[in-house]
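Why this split exists: single-chain examples teach little about how molecules sit against one another. For that reason, every record in the complexes split bundles all components of an assembly together and asks for one structure covering all of them. Below is a record exactly as it appears in the raw files.
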Amino acid sequence: MARNVDALYIFLLIVTGMMTLLVFSFLIFFAARFRHRPGVRAEQIEGSTPLEITWSTIPFLVFMVIFAWGAVVYFKERTPPADSAEIYVVAKQWMWKLEHAEGQREINELHVPVGRDVKLIMTSQDVIHSFFIPAFRIKQDVLPGRYTVEWFRATKPGVYHLFCAEYCGTQHSGMVGDIVVMEPAQYEAWMNGGSTGPLSATGEKIFAELGCSTCHRTDTQGRGPNLQGVFGKPVQLEDGRTVTADENYLRECILDPGAKRVKGFQPLMPTFQGLVTEEQVNALVAYIKSISATKPADGAKTSASAAAPLAEEKVQAHGSQVQ
Amino acid sequence: MSMEIAIPQPVERENYLNKKYGVWSWLLTTDHKRIALLYLLSITFFFFIGGFFALLIRLELLTPAGDLVQADTYNKLFTMHGMVMVFFFLIPSIPAVLGNFLVPMMIGAKDLAFPRINLLSWYLYVIGGVLMLHCMLTGGVDTGWTFYAPYSTNFTNTKIVEAGLAIFIAGFSSILTGLNFVVTIHRMRAPGMTWSRLPLFIWAHYATSIIQLLGTPVVAVTIVLVAAERALHLGIFDPKLGGDPLLFQHLFWFYSHPAVYIMILPSMGVVTEIIACFSRKRIFGYSFVAFSSIAIAVFGFLVWAHHMFVAGMSVYAALVFSLLSYAVAVPSAIKVFNWTATLYKGSIHYDAPMLYAFGFLGLFTVGGLTGLFLAALGIDTHVTDTYFVVAHFHYIMVGGAVMGYLGGMHFWWPKISGRLYPEGWARLAALIVFIGFNLTFFPQFLLGYMGMPRRYYDYSHMPEFQVLNVLSTAGATVLGVGYLLPMIYFLWSMRYGKPAPDNPWNAAGLEWKTSSPPTTFNFEEEPVVTWEAYNYEELDSPDKDAPHSEEVPVAR
Amino acid sequence: MPDSTAVLHQEEDRPELLHHFADAEQQRDASSLGMWVFLATEVMFFGGLFCAYLVYRRWYFGDFAAASKSINMALGATNTAVLICSSLTVVLAVWAAQTARRTLLLVSLAITMLLGVTFLGIKGIEYRDKFVEHHVPGASFSFEHESIPGHPGQYANPRHAQIFFSLYFVMTGLHALHMIIGLGIFLWLLIMAWKGRFTPEYNTPIEIGGLYWHFVDIIWIYLFPLLYLIDRHP
């Protein structure tokens, strides 16, 4: 990934370098050649429309090439691969709290295996932060109130800087950390060195403790929708809209249940705002993802019985990035 | 006892400076030229305050550890540096000083359309400035000049409301100046001064004024919302109350991006006048340069979210804004090419104003080209919020706008003061500024790509950044010297400089047909314009009875 | 070269012609253009608020509808009528000045001001109602168990409703502030008219004061449906 960014950067260096050279050469040449000489008068030249059109069009075309290349790289940057390993990140003034799906918790450090796609699902507890790994050439602002997503695949073992890149107060420059990229074997060893169990298991516990299963039963008799297999699927809402049940939607349902109520259900769900921490929300989301249809590796049932009647083909793509 | 013989002094003509003496004749003036000087004093004052903060920032960054000031203090330093420089120096600078002074004269008018509103503008600026000073002296603000929510609304306990009020008031000063210019240019042009005969300085200020008028109110209302949220816990930007922090960013940048064009367009106007005069020829592509100013103003309103590519916007929005950002680069490129082409077959003189113009051309080109990097989505994710951005905008604001401002001050100094500045010192200062500037800011491009984030007071986790930071600080001290020099010799020249002729540069433009310094009402009788702009052929023609027709321009 | 006596005569005859203008027509054109340009800036000023309003209305339509129902449409409609009438009296004032009808001018200006004060009075009543009902954003805000129009049994989210009220108070508050400034301007115009300063040749201040007043009226014409009439059914 970083290679692509650098390639574009070098291309830009060359293009802008050439433009600079061109302009500077003309400037210096003209400045010297047409220096004032006694008796030699300036020649009044009104302009040249063909020249104007040329030097407007050619740069514009070059700019469009740069735009297109940049857009392609950006699109890749913002599209995490489907089976990335997921890490939940909670930023707060002035530290990074990270939790692996398998349950390991880290503070200001992230251990990842080399060669694996890693997706960061991030939110902030307070102000806007930004998760910046210069070596991987990626950065994404971390916002309070919703999830934003970033992904990378490390290609070389090593330790790389992690910086907060959105000013967040007094210790903004202290909100730094390390990304520790390890060989797969080393990473396994590190993983086994202590964990509190998978994040989804934590989520399952919270799901029971908070009484979610009272209404969200695994049959169609519940007062709330059956959540088996709901993640990633389109959901039809009471007000006619259709949304995709992604991380942000699940989070919103927990914290603000009335906002996007599922069609066919009464407005009975209480809000859990203030009753759950960000980490607990992350765990619940991980649990609901684990009981989705597509991942047998998570030990979930591959049942596709979503209680909410599915909408027509029209799916409103609410990605993890809200507009 | 010997008799003292009085040496007869030449009789000084009446002009706007000596027409009336006394503090009240200045504080209650409605003469656009005196108001320009009032602005000159105040913005210079704020320039040095902002510069002082910059010096402290650079001194702190000499070493990786945060050891000069505390974290909170540093955060206040870069915030105040930004707020003072943007709102109290750059935005007013050329329009309020050179624009106020020259716009009426360049179009053949006696004054601006609304002289009393012009004075009100200055008072609003001063009130805003005093409030900002008070805010800084009693604790200051630490949000960064961009005061993003929710940090600014819910988390910081610094004096946001006071700083916001100061900027709000100064914003009205900016709006009223823009209003004055637009109405003046539309309604008070002398007979024969058609739009296509206007100096390009006027076109540039017209475009600038449009932006001031339409953009500033949006940041004003944003400040109102932030203040209301702080004071009343409204929740418009607070996610915990259903609000959206991104809405703040959209509202903020909707003004603050066009604001950067407020800061650069007037400078482009100055540079155009200087290049024409010191090449002794009409600007190449007059209409293209004129319309490119308008194009920049219009397109400038369409690209604000290129500051938000990693903020959490949708990919599709990012694509649109990136595309438009490349579009807005084209008119600027057109200008650079036209300025360069003007030199072709010119008769170039290297007086200090021209040196500043050359500096502008070089530095604005570099700064503008680095904008292409930032507009590229794939690159922006890496370099945004790093020193790359800092370097980019300082190349444009300082390497571009301030160089243009200094060039313009030198060019019109004889007209403003009636004195000539010392040319040798001026050339030296231009060189020092150019060298100091590059030494300060070029290393920051490298620091940025290497990953040094902005607004970091302590980089002890990345000691490898120190060398470039030291270079940057060294450059800043050189730059500071370069800025001090004109202060000193301009003041010196007011007392000891050679008296200036009416048109020392034999330049085109109605302002040069007034005396140096001009009288209060500029023209003895209303000019009637029958010639095109930049009539250098006529001015340099050998049979013209000009004082320096055989060797132009001279200002010594 | 115009001699100073000619200039003096000009100023004596036409004291309202400011020295830097070439003639009265230029002065009038400049003043008029100046007011139009100023109003454009005011559009942008309110525009930021309208933008915020539109975003949140789209996101929280039901909650906004519930909140909108709780503000007094009858009073709002009355205020709309009051302002429209005041714009009529403004037009009358301008015409009266242009046709040298002193009495009508004074009466029109006075009635305009009266209507403006009426508007503010009604607004004050509305604000007081909101205060009493705890709909003012802040610590004592409360909006529980308000059902969303058209969705019986579904209650509005108080936090989203608070955003509606925040915008309501900021937008109408800013509008009211502009009304107060307008009243100040019209008081000045009334005094000048009383002193006989306005003639068919010179009545620009009435004209541009009128423009300002019309603008404040138009802002209200937008505010009224946007704030008072969300999802109202007959």
